[in-house]
């Protein structure tokens, strides 16, 4: 394992709160960037979402480890001057305040671009900055609804903050690209992302279906709108999830798992397009056979036939799953907590990450550091 991390030497300053921007900067910190988290005197409100992780908030612990915390009241001239001194040395500036807020404080993209041409700025908004929705509140649940995700997911909120999370991931990717861009041409650039734009990107398939066929998919639970069979099927115990991707797999499912030559040769089930047209008949026929097996018997048959399958786990079962990986982080009070490992296993990651910052823990040190740099 190499000691060097790819973003070592990169200074990131982030006026961030909640999820999208903190997730982005946490990934930059994991790759070695120095991340200075600028918080209001009362702190990032995500610190108070809950207290489930040994007294700390789940969201905060997940996406704020490895950062330094400085408390600044940007309504005060002295603190604005402090932020400006830090930005003069920074490589990346991230913010997810309401549209126009940083500009009113004197840190708008155009002004920063003139003062610091190598600085990369990244602004995260709810609906973008150039339309009539620019000033709308854009919490994750609202964007799930506005983007159509709720409509194809049972008219409910997804169980995670998917709009925030995807936007944070997109911002991370865009910043890494911008750093490479600057390496080639010596210039920084302005990046702009929105939660709504991130959602319409991952909603591309149903949106394209609507745009070009006049009809998008309806909510169909665990099923897939374009693939059959794909979903949960009954056993004598709990359901088993089965996914068939091609005709070879369909034949193996019919003959090796279900032992049904009738299904394998049925003319209405001969292709995925036909099976989709006869979805109810296909699923009923399969279910009539699978419910004769126990859950484990069916899983064994499916695995032996190399058919994609799984079960719907509880959260407690996920924590015991053979594929689940975690790393340790230190909480502000010194306690240690396990958090899910980053999805990309890279040479520069370890099984322990830097700790989560106490509110304002680094304020005095950072102020002194950058005051000295300016005076020097």
From TrEMBL:
E.C. number: 2.8.3.-, 2.8.3.22
Protein's UniProt keywords contain Transferase: yes
InterPro entries (alphabetical): CoA-transferase_III_domain, CoA-Trfase_fam_III, CoA-Trfase_III_dom3_sf, CoA-Trfase_III_dom_1_sf
UniProt-listed Pfam families: CoA_transf_3
Molecular functions per Gene Ontology: transferase activity
Keywords: Transferase
Name listed for the protein in its UniProt record: Itaconate CoA-transferase
Native source organism of the sequence: Endozoicomonas lisbonensis
